[in-house]
Amino acid sequence: MFRDVDLENIAAPVLRAALADTPFVVSQIDDVILGNAAGPGGNIARLSALVAWQDISVPGVTTDRQCGAGLEAVIHACRLIQAGAGDVYVAGGAESHSRKPLRALPGQKGKAPNFYDRARFSPDTIGDPEMGAAADVVAQAHNITRERQDAFALRSHSRAIHAQTNGAFDTEIVSIEGQHQDECPRDTLSPERLARLRPAFGKNGTVTVGNACPLNDGAAALVVTSAGFAKAHGITHALEFLDAASAGVDPNLLGIGPVASTRKLLDRNPEVSLGAVTHLEFNEAFAAQVLASLDLLAVSEDLANAQGGAIALGHPFGASGAILVTRLFAQLVTLPQPETALAMAMIGIGGGQGLTAMFRPAHL
């Protein structure tokens, strides 16, 4: 959709729109924090801020926790607010899979450059599998059948189509280059069509293009501030950040990273139980890893992604974690929920990491 649009021109309209949804002005921004995983390098946050507002006083910093980069950016902004380092942060993520650079290392002794698709996430002594191959390993290790993966993928599309048809995404989507609707949800999918797809990463595997996410271009941004500052500026409803945790796991089983990060978060917050979670956004890189993680956490798969997830809506790496929080904001604040509601965002990360953040609606 945006194959000819530079990354900063995807991010800038989203930054502007996020700030415009608040009573704050550009001069109040303490920093712009954006996650990015496969981009051109440099500092896409600063570049995007300059494009967005043409204001040289607005700083920017770019984070890279690969698929978790966007959620990491939001958490980092929340931690800065907790520390009293500033009042207003614009945080999120941006990715252009279409325009990611061709990467090469210099050839040895005058040989041709060595082109490669991605950076290393783990040394060979441990293992550094490709994402799809690792998802197949997770499926086999945790007995996640092809049928169950396909059913989860179909549900993701069905939920996304229902939400899209009913305008659930309308207020959070910014039109770019005349495009204002996600292009990947499919209303023509069926169990039969999914069953006909061949394994994508190994002839005996169960992961297919149908039960894995598409790779997309996109951006997401949120405005992060303190409850007191928000209330002083007339804001009455917000999404309150409670805590977050990151954790490492075996890179060969990278998809179950959220299990470790969620358990770590719960250990630090013993008053919280997963049974109290009312809203869950879990990045759907592969149905296999989502299902395996939810099984290990003893969480119903029906709870995850009430309006569809990345299998239907897409996975723009650096933005996906921020999209999870945007979706929680829409479900808990745009459609106000009682303060007893409890939400989590979970994402697995290349190299064997997980990231989990916890939120609740706040009436200020």
Automatic annotation (TrEMBL):
The Thiolase C-terminal domain, residue ranges: 241-359
Domain Thiolase N-terminal, chain residue ranges per copy: 1-226
Any single Pfam family the record assigns to this protein: Thiolase_N
Gene3D superfamilies per UniProt: 3.40.47.10
Coiled-coil ranges (or none): none
Entry keywords, A to Z: Acyltransferase, Transferase
One GO MF term attached to the UniProt entry: acetyl-CoA C-acyltransferase activity
Superkingdom to which the source organism belongs: Bacteria
Family indicated by similarity: Belongs to the thiolase-like superfamily. Thiolase family.
NCBIfam families named in the record: AcCoA-C-Actrans
Protein name: Thiolase family protein
Organism: Shimia litoralis
